[in-house]
Amino acid sequence: MKRRKHLATAAVSHALNLIVAGCFYMSSYDTVQAAEKKNYTRVPFAAFSSQMSDALFGSGKYEKPAWNLHDALKAPNWLDVSVEQRSRYETMSGTFKAGSIGGDQQIPLQTTLWLQAHLGSFRLGTEFMDARALNSDSGTGVNNTMSNTWDFLQAYAAWLDQNVFYSGIGAEVVAGRQTLNLGSRRLVARNAMRNTINNFTGVKLRLTDYVNWQFNGFVSTPVNRLPTSSTALLDNKQVFDRENTHTWFSGGFLELYNLGWKINSEIYLYHLDEGDSTDSPSRNRRYFTPGMRFYIKPAKAEFDFQLETIGQFGTVRATTAARDSKNLNHTAWYQHADVGYTFNIPWSPRLGLEYDYASGDQNPNDNKDQRFDTLFGARRFDFGPTGIYGAFSRSNITTPGYRINVSPRSNVLVSFSHRIFWLAAAKDCWGGTTCSGSSLILQDKTGRSGNNLGQQLDLSTRWDFNSSLNFETGWAHLFKGSFAKNAPAAPAPVDVDYFYVQSMLRF
Fold first, then answer.
1. CA torsion through residues 97, 100, 105, 111, sign
2. What angle do CA 175, 176, 179 make, to 5 degrees?
3. What per-residue string of b and e applies to 198-224 under the rule 16 or more CB within 10 Å gives b?
4. Could you say which of 2, 152, 181, 359 is the most buried, measured as most Cβ atoms within 10 Å of its Cβ?
5. What pTM value is reported for the model?
6. Are the CB atoms for 307 and 330 separated by under 8 Å?
7. How many Å from the N-terminal Cα to the C-terminal Cα in the chain?
8. Is 333:372 a contact under the CB 8 Å cutoff?
């Protein structure tokens, strides 16, 4: 263990030296950058989605990478090829997890290779992904959201027709292993900051009239990321992921554009029917999750807003134990609201006010479960960094806050947010999809510890050197509230600081 820590510390030092040296080198390149196009949409800090063009609409959302592997290899036009690599160093002092002490650090590495062949109206594609969590040990609590060594993230066949029977309707069908990214991404997302990515095997149908509406419907089975034990993950053991054929996840998602006053909307329904598998014992979640969202996109000198309401009902079991056969009635809901204004002045500052509520279980001893489940959603954009931090999730919280975004240069974005967090139900636990199955989750079933979790400051800065190379750094500080300090098994009452620096290279 000491040898591993020594080697990891040396690796951290070397990586930071390279980053600093790289920054000095790139600063000297400003005169070259001045002539480079800077008006591209900022790509996400997640692999693959930044380079895949929308085949149905016939265009890509993001600018072509300045350093392009396809052109460098002189690959034929019918073949798409790209490699993307993200490196991050993250460190945390203090802790909020039950029974834990001290801080932690980690070096998550994420590398993907994407290949896609065009054959007329058909496409064949595959994506390989390697995600590792270096500098981790048994105290990190490594799980398969942090590490999933070399595996197939996607392997699919697709067909499209941009004008079905000359109706003006475009249609696309994608079959096989694939990732899903829908709407606000609060329930179904291709993860961005998290080091591993949710994927599914099934069929997805997309229809659109290109102007007024778009529909996505899918039937799939989630893919279990393997291995699951922390020992195997720390040793970077490679086990091919397998579909969970005992679980089905399906849904329909309708987007309506330009309803009036620049308002867009989404109406959707998801169904999860979960069963136990050899690789993944489950709580047998059987949920229907309907929801709707209305929004106006941010624009200079204009107000924007977002309002999303989600319900959830069905049955679930309290634990994943095989002997647990008792179904609890599940009824939960989630509400998000934000409003903002972007000023038409230098730096284009946007000020936004936001609020989130996710229901919690009011009574842990009855036959009901009221804890909202975010299914396969992402959370960084609402609740701060994840990685080894990830203090807040979309379950049992009520949280108002504000956010300020500024852009000092066209290729620099600075974001600051301040949020206050309370438990929605004082007897329910803090964090996680469920209160069972983890000894690190804080809970006071008596409710005597109150519901004040604390306040969080979140600051991040992003610099796009060009369309191939991006840097980001961020800091989060958690001022602990009474629950975080006084709940049973609560760690030392010191505040938590989390810091990260990362790069993304696309070519």
1. negative
2. 95
3. bbbbbebebbbeeeeebbbebebbbbb
4. 359
5. 0.89
6. no
7. 36
8. yes
CB-CB contact of 247 with 161 (8 Å):
no
Q: Is 165 helix (H, G, I), strand (E, B) or coil?
A: helix
Q: Which percentage of the chain shows pLDDT scores above 70? A: 89
pLDDT digits (tens, 9 = 90+) for 427-452: 999 987 788 767 789 999 999 999 99
Torsion angle in degrees (nearest 10) through CA of 7, 130, 235, 222: 150
CA distance 291 to 312: 9
Provide the token pair at 363: 């009574």
DSSP assignment string, 36-98: S---SPPPPSSTTTTT--BTTTTB-SSPPPSS-HHHHTT--TTEEEEEEEEEEEEEEES--ST
Name the token pair of 299. 């624009």
What φ, ψ does residue 7 adopt, rounded to 5°? Answer: -65, -40
Residue 285 CB neighbour total at 10 angstroms: 21
Closest CA to 421 of 455, 382, 444, 396: 455
Query: 37-46 burial, b for 16+ CB within 10 Å, e for fewer?
Result: eeebeebbbb
Q: Are 503 and 471 in contact (CB under 8 A)?
A: yes
Q: How far apart (Å, rounded) are the C-alpha atoms in residues 32 and 265?
A: 42
Please list, in sequence order, all residues whose beta carbon lies within 8 angstroms of the beta carbon of residue 297, skipping any fewer than 6 positions away. Answer: 262, 264, 304
Residue bearing tokens 């000092």? 408
H or E element in which residue 91 lies: strand 79-93
DSSP 128-164: EEEEEEET--TTT---TTT-EEEEEEEEEEEEEESSG
Where do the structural domains in the chain lie, given as residue ranges? 1-35, 36-506
pLDDT tens sequence across 440-497: 899 999 999 999 999 999 999 999 998 899 999 999 999 999 999 999 999 999 999 9
Helix (H) or strand (E) holding 109: strand 104-119
Q: How many residues are present in the chain?
A: 507
Distance CA(103)–CA(108), nearest Å, equals 16
pLDDT digits 0-9 by tens, 332-350: 999 999 999 999 999 999 9
The answer to whether 456 and 480 have CB atoms below 8 angstroms apart is: no
Confidence of residue 33 (pLDDT cuts 50, 70, 90): very low
Distance of CA 167 to the CA centre of its chain: 36
> Which sign, positive or negative, has the C-alpha torsion 318, 322, 326, 329?
positive
- Give the max Cα distance, the chain: 67
The values of phi and psi at residue 247, to 5°, are -130, 140
- For the domain spanning 36-506, the CATH number is 2.40.160.100
Quote the tokens at residue 151: 């595996």
- In 10 A of CB 417, how many CB atoms? 21
